Amino acid sequence: MNKILEKWSAWGLLAILLISASVMLVLARADSLTMDELAHIPSGYSYVRYLDYRLNPEHPPLLKALSGIPLLFMDARFPTESSKWTSEINAQWDLGRMFIFESGNNSPLLIFLARLGPIFLTLLLIWFIYRWSKEMVGGKWALLPTFLIGLSPNFLSHGHYVTTDIAAALGIAVATYFFLHFLANPSGKNVFFAGLAFGLAQLSKFSAVLLLPYFVILIILKVLNLSIAQGEGFSWKRFFSISYSYFGRTVILFVTGFVLLVYPVYGLFTYNYPIEEQVTDTTSTLRSFANGPTPPGKICQPTRCLADMTIWMSGNRITRPLAEYSLGVLMVMQRSAGGNNNYFMGHVSASGSHAYFPLVYLMKESLPVLLLILGAVVFGIWRMKNIRKEVPQNTGFWRKIFAWIDNNFTENALLLFVVLYWLYSIRSPLNIGFRHLFPTLPFIYLLIASSWQRHHLTHPAAKTSRYVLAILIVWFGLETAYAYPSYLSYFNPVAGGTSNGYRYVTDSNYDWGQDLLRLKNVIVEYNHCAQTKCDANLGVGCPSSCKQFIGSGIKHGEQIDKFAIDYFGGSHIPYYFGDKAVSWWSSKGDPRAEGIHWLVLAANSIQGSIQPTINNFERKPEDEYRWLTSERPLTDSGMGAIPKWDLRAGTSLFIYHLP
Fold first, then answer.
1. Cα four-point dihedral sign 643, 647, 653, 655
2. Per-residue model confidence as pLDDT tens digits over 3-15
3. For the packed helices 409-427 and 211-229, what is the interaxial angle rounded to 10 degrees?
4. Which residue intervals of 573-615 are DSSP H helices?
């Protein structure tokens, strides 16, 4: 029976991998370039082609380098002669535009090949979570977290973009898995593999720095468990003896990760980065960090000392790879402290909100998963009430608590990371997307599987919950299928669904530039219909392909020949539309003054322009599209309502006909 279950489990894994890969490969061609990809793609190519790390130091190289490797096989031309490369500091956005769209490269092919790297990492993450959950709950139940990741609208969207979020989820998961193995058996072999996994995480995203305090807390819990378990009572001597052993090996583990992975990788990618330029770039980038350079004769403040040390290391050939890593960490610290302009829940602000990540998660996670989490919490509370059944009788309170922690150490470790990471995210003023919670999602799905599996084994009403679980799984799959292909803009039905998510939050949660190719298709289809004798207001004489434009005001012969566009994303407008499109923003006024009668507004642009501001956010009247809002009624009076549009491309681009 077990062999049969193992076989079906393996086939289930294969099916999930094939479906996920197929969807992401299709979307890799269908979605236009998103905002961060414009910087990540040229950076990754420059790392592997020129071994030069001058671009995009605020993100580690793993994902970017993987995306750059396939581009080596297409003879891509890179603008190394431009001043953006030779003299300007970190001109990643301009170089991205020049490399992808203006250097004569095959842009659609280049973007598609670059996206193969993140797709590979996403599939690797799916497989790894399956293997881990198989150890935790067995092959049959291992398919549950695998399914939740492989068919998640959120992972299917960001899984094919050249951004670091999937890499972070994979790196942190792998590092945690091997660290837990090290804690269970601190052998030399486990120290080595845990060190490599830790180094891999540091190369994925700088949020992996949180693994340092997280691992320290896990060690303390493990040491306390061992100290209490080995005797009748707590002994400081025993505690310090075990602590010395574990912390000593952990230091070796951290050093192993940096020496065998972080240092060599950064050393390779800074090999052709002129040391003089690295010093100049580092000094300039950190000029304002922690109130600027330390005055001569003064002692630096703690955080500024880090910057001063990084600048010094950048000028030493031995330490400069570590200086580049340190620079990235400091840049992330600086940006996280500064916040960002964003639209959230009806208001525009430059300050973060503590409610941002909890509310965005509740809106962008699918309802079946939220119900699975609710069930897991209920089952967990029920188990906590019966803790006496899992620990020896006649034991003291603290020994009982630590015995329960030790009996469920993996689950408690996963929950601890979720709590720590969420607390850090909630406190941060940098609110730029649900994707920043990705490192916690695999852990949440593993906890779901563990809680439901234990409930089925121990609870007398498990048969009923099996039917509930089956319904939720089918519901989840259908919801994912229904949301296709607009996965980046996915919002669950309680939050208004995918078509209405822009009302609550934008940026990478909804509008990241992914719909520009769909805009091109809509314009082609609309112009074709405008050439027919079709009255779309009445639906009379319209070909079937033109039914989508009924009510749009289409008139025979009135095509979209030229339009203004306020776009938020990484694609280059002239590459796709030539002189038929004019980049626009509110302060340029009404485009009809220049003879343009069509306007395209990105969801992020329009919401940032017209919604009320809070927290002393300053916005000029000319930046508020008042000429449009004065003549166009809002879609309704609800939160985040915008001027009523005539056509829509994908989910994020609203098209206005200006008679």
1. negative
2. 666 778 899 999 9
3. 150
4. 573-577, 603-610
